[in-house]
Amino acid sequence: MSAGFIVTSIQDTPMSGVADGITARLLKEGTSEDPSVVMELTFAPGAAFGEDAHSLPEVLVVTDGVFGDGEREYGKGSIIVGAPGSVHFPQSKDGCTVLAFHPAGR
User: Fold this and answer.
1) Is 23-102 a domain of CATH 2.60.120.10?
2) CA dihedral over 34, 78, 81, 71, signed as positive or negative
3) Would you put residue 85 in left (φ > 0), alpha (ψ -120 to 50) or beta?
4) Residue segments in the chain with a per-residue pLDDT below the cut of 70
């Protein structure tokens, strides 16, 4: 691997519980040099996070299933960009997996 790259395997990253029916894999932690964070979130059918307000930008990529934000639903391949000050209610009726990017940290 060339200098300056970090490689992580999703399958080798442990899961941790975030909320009832929602698990996360922290794929990249933020550092003082690079505050960006990357996580894989998995929602069981019917799981809901509650209100999620953002002071920093967030980018979500739906990699499987259907993700809901409290107003709309987004299928596999959808990219959702939340600006600072945005609020949503992450949930999934039938279950989903989402990659969450926090370019400025969390």
Assistant:
1) yes
2) negative
3) left
4) 1
DSSP per-residue string spanning 26-73: EEE---SS---EEEEEEE-TT-B---EE-SS-EEEEEEEEEEE-SS-E
Domain extent listing, the chain: 23-102
CA-to-CA separations, 61 to 3, 4, 55, 70, 81, in angstroms, rounded: 27, 24, 19, 17, 9
- Report pLDDT for 64: 98
Specify the pLDDT at position 2: 83
Per-residue confidence (pLDDT) for residue 80, from 0 to 100: 97
Residue 65: what residue type?
G
Q: What is the pTM of this model?
A: 0.91
Beta strand 22-28 pairing with 87-88:
unpaired
**DSSP at 21:** T
Rounded to whole angstroms, the Cα distance separating 86 from 79 reads: 15
